[in-house]
Amino acid sequence: MLRTNRISGTIAQKAKRILVNGTASGATARSLSTTRAALGKKAPNEARAEARAFTQKERGVKSARSGTATVVNLEDANPEYYSSPPNPTGLLSLNAKTATYSNTNRFMQLDEGFLRNLGKNVYPGNLASDFKMFGRPALLYRDATNDLVQQLLTKRAEKGSSKASVIDGKAGTGKSAELLKLAAVGASSDYLVIYAHSTFPWVDSSRPYAPGSDGTMYVQHELTMELMKTIHGMSKAALAKVPLGKEISFGKRSLGSTMTLLDLVDFAVKVPSVSQDALDHLLEIASKQTEVPVLIAVDDVNTLWTNTLYRDQNDAILPASRLRLPSSFRPFFDGEKAVERGWVVGATSYKRSLFMPQELNSKLHPAPKVPVANPVLAQDPTLAKDTAEAAEANRLSFDVIALDRMSTAETWALMNFYHKISVISTPVTDALVAKKWVTASGNPREMFNSVTSYF
Amino acid sequence: MLHLLGVNLPDQKVVSVALTYFYGIGPLTARKICSQLSIHQQCKLSELTEGQLNQVSGVLSSMTIENDLKRQVAANVQHLRRIGTYIGKRHAMGMPVHGQNTRNNSKTAKKLNGRMLRRYSTTTNTAFNLQALGVLRSPLSKGL
After folding, report:
1. What digits encode the pLDDT tens for the residues A107-152?
2. Chain A: nearest CA to B59, how far in angstroms?
3. Beta bridge partner(s), residue A66
């Protein structure tokens, strides 16, 4: 304290000396009083510019705080860091004409109009992040895709009911992508496409539901109306070709037998309360007619057999069989119904294990049948045995299309595309492809994650 | 904020969570109310229609919650005291009721128990008030 007083005293003396004797540059000295006045009166601080880093949006609207945009002058910016979003050019559009073997291992763009029907920025599975990275919705046309397309064309030509098929494979092998490509090819040709790109909202209690008129089943009008909108957008021409064949009445309003499925779907979109009944009629008529081929594609098909997160009025858990929307599609996969001309395809999903029923999982991936050498254990009734009864019990009502890992040629095409859109900067060589294929075990999702892990 | 049956409910909360803001309703009861009225789990209070809100009000009105419940609990404790039960005496002493040890701890019981038995006079006929007013009467005289 003494020291500071001494120092401040020294400074005051110095100031006084300067004021009295003048400054070193020879400027004239001011009188002490004016100097004191000048020192005492602090320079007014400039009004602090109200530069709040975060501004609160007005009340009533979502109260998210937003930061101010950081404007970067791209002319001076580091070009390696600030790059324009990728815009791959020269991509073919995926449709019935381009879906051929000659275009295998090529990236093809999905039709914007087709994707618009799914909703704004709504993509099945984990494809949203992929498309954002690519700059446009583009997928690789694989050998597996070509096989599926060939099956689709075969079923188009055939008449007669066939078994449903389910695409199954490990997580990230591209099941949802294959189904999306199949639906895109079907929509571009004369197929009547009924495509449910995600059925998790049907069972995860995220959308409204209500008890039906009978009291046991429950309806989801909002979801059904959205599905009808998707069908309307994808297959307008095909719907217009199929007459109703019978009079359908919805309360006071009825549709004549000469009207077409397009009128039925239009009506369902305008009146959501009848959308579920309209969907049931649509599936019944479409499956029995042979005028136009029908493609019923359901992603996350395992949700049709699961317990949902919905509850009934007694607070008991509702199984999917008590919801009318999943129940409309389940008979096609259970073998109870079939389409006369066309194909019913599903794709499993392991994204949310809560909605993968244990029974279905064990049927899709049965335990290996190892003969029991120990005679005592062989008589154990709890051990699974390779008997005809066990085989019958584990039999699936649909065909399983196993989607395996990518081939090296497909991996090469994938890496080339990533290099083209600057996701990877190193040139694509055999060594790089082999490394990525081995470390990811041919899984496309793992390959994508490995090249974008630093993004 | 939605004002329902005397309680302010936050609009942006999920219905089953917002209902727990009522005294007497916990997560299980809230879930049962939502199931009874077919309100999906992720439904927010602001998404409910007027009809659904009326249904919720109707269900809540038929339940004993808020002040009714508080009154009921207080009456139960007072009854136990009145008839001279052990539990009533423990409430009166402000000690734990369910057989807990009191050698240590029991701070919560000492703080909270018995608050339903304390009587606060709101009339002017107390001895202090009467003396102050100069109207002191014999404690044995009736009419106080």
Report:
1. 999 888 888 888 777 888 888 888 888 888 889 999 999 999 999 9
2. 13
3. A55
Least CB-CB distance to A206: which of B32, B38, B42? B42
- Interface predicted TM-score of the whole assembly (ipTM), two decimals: 0.76
3-state DSSP helix/strand/coil % of chain A, to nearest 5 = 45, 15, 45
Numbered residues of chain B with Cβ closer than 8 Å to any chain A Cβ? 31-32, 34-36, 38, 40-43
- Report the gap between the CA of B43 and the closest CA in chain A (Å): 7
Is B43 in Cβ contact with A314 (below 8 Å)? Answer: no
Q: Of how many residues is chain A composed?
A: 455
Report DSSP letters for A310-341, one per residue. EE-TTSPEEEGGGBHHHHHHHHHHHTS---SS
Q: How confident is the model at residue A156 (pLDDT cuts 50, 70, 90)?
A: confident
Beta strands in A331-433 (DSSP E): 342-347, 399-402
- Closest chain A residue to B1, measured at CA: A60
Selected for mutation to probe chain B from A315, A322, A325 (highest B CB count within 10 Å) is: A315
User: Percent helix, strand and coil across chain B, each rounded to 5?
Assistant: 50, 5, 45
Mean per-residue pLDDT, B18-31:
96
Are A154 and A164 a contacting pair, CB within 8 Å?
no
Q: A111: which DSSP letter?
A: P
Is B35 in Cβ contact with A314 (below 8 Å)? yes
Handedness of CA A317, A321, A322, A326 (dihedral sign): positive
Pair B27, B34: CB distance under 8 Å? no
Chain B partners of A317 at a C-beta cutoff of 8 Å?
Answer: none
Here the tokens at position A415 are: 């890496």
